[in-house]
Amino acid sequence: xxxxxxxxxxxxxxxxxxxxxxxxxxxxxxxxxxxxxxxxxxxxxxxxxxxxxxxxxxxxxxxxxxxxxxxxxxxxxxxxxxxxxxxxxxxxxxxxxxxxxxxxxxxxxxxxxxxxxxxxxxxxxxxxxxxxxxxxxxxxxxxxxxxxxxxxxxxxxxxxxxxxxxxxxxxxxxxxxxxxxxxxxxxxxxxxxxxxxxxxxxxxxxxxxxxxxxxxxxxxxxxxxxxxxxxxxxxxxxxxxxxxxxxxxxxxxxxxxxxxxxxxxxxxxxxxxxxxxxxxxxxxxxxxxxxxxxxxxxxxxxxxxxxxxxxxx
Length: 313
Prior knowledge:
This protein is of the alpha/beta class. It has helices at 26-39, 60-69, 84-95, 103-121, 127-133, 138-148, 152-162, 173-188, 194-210, 220-230, 236-248, 254-261, 263-287, 294-312; strands spanning 5-8, 13-14, 45-50, 53-58, 74-79. It starts with a strand and ends with a helix.
């Protein structure tokens, strides 16, 4: 049928089960419905025929609005019926540039695409292959795969949150991923077991909801705590007490925990790294016989003065 536009009863059309988009926010649908009511459907739906039914490839929001408005006919373009793997690939290709897709439902469908590939080729796709067939970047594929590694209860919580209007959402995918990364860093250093890791992640998410933690990337400071313990800059006992307080005390923030344990050690470690690099740079400078300009000498004199004060202290 090519690009011929056909008028169809929207009741003869069905949603595509392979569509990664599961969440349709009511405020977005209301705005589109008002536009369709005033101007009609300006862009035809894209469909394929499956036996006696028409299945959506593109245009589910338009179709939903048409049903609600009771439109007798909608414009549509009929495409050849794809195989399942091709169907999922087309869904990604059609929608990959749309910013209103939610990551978790997309990750779940990406997992199905990976399984279809393995079924067809008797092997798992590489990261590059999966990115190619899903019309995504490798970075996007890695991020979506991290979501698939989340415990089921957090995935369910995120899906429930996604059903809310954006302005009412308290927890996002980034909140969960950052909380997970921070708790994982502590487990990898044997500072928490699996049970405590989960309790800590749950506590962090509750604090995101209440505003006790108001910075999405605050859990990254837990990575620094783990590193400080590894460098013997913070005692294991202090770290364990701090982690326990983060789990138990609903008002205790990660910033407070960081200030009480890692802040001074982290600042000292940063100075140590900078000083080491500076020493190496100065050695190269002097070996090459460069003559320092007065501006550089002035900075070095100021640095020497501050170093003398620090060393006296």
